[in-house]
């Protein structure tokens, strides 16, 4: 029997979130401890050792984790391709420190109209997604929408 190696590690580095999405209850759990950098680095090495090739940093909202850039650098040092899924509310403030550290940048968008997206997200995020698309391109990134 052949062993199938895992391809992707989805790493929930925080349960904090600045949205109140209807389809997710992570934000309602209250403050929990964020993933510690030393533990993340150890887990990334373990993941690579068993064949993982991609790590998606997610959460809650991963941009709320202050050590995200260090985690992204550690993943790349392990030879992992990095992905990041964000609601973009903090992306304009953090885009420069993240530039070049994310192979696949995913921006969450839940509707083609602001009223729909913002209602589902529980926050005025629609315009921030659109602005972040342009900003990411200016920083040399190639974001996609999920």
Topology:
Layout: E1 8-14, H1 37-49, E2 54-59, H2 68-77, E3 81-86, H3 91-98, E4 104-107, H4 114-121, H5 126-138, E5 144-145
Parallel strand pairs: 1-2, 2-3, 3-4, 4-5
Overall form: globular
Instruction: Compute the number of helices.
Output: 5
* Class per helix and strand makeup: alpha/beta
**Could you state the order of secondary-structure elements as H and E?**
EHEHEHEHHE
Q: How many β-strand runs?
A: 5
Mean pLDDT: 93
**Helicity range of the residues?**
25-40%
The oligomeric status of these chains comes to: single chain
- Strand portion, in percent? 15-25%
Strand line-up in the sheet with most strands: 1-2-3-4-5
Radius of gyration over all CA atoms, rounded: 16 Å
How far apart are the termini?
35 Å
Model regions low in confidence, pLDDT < 50 over at least 5 residues: none
Largest sheet: 5 strands, parallel
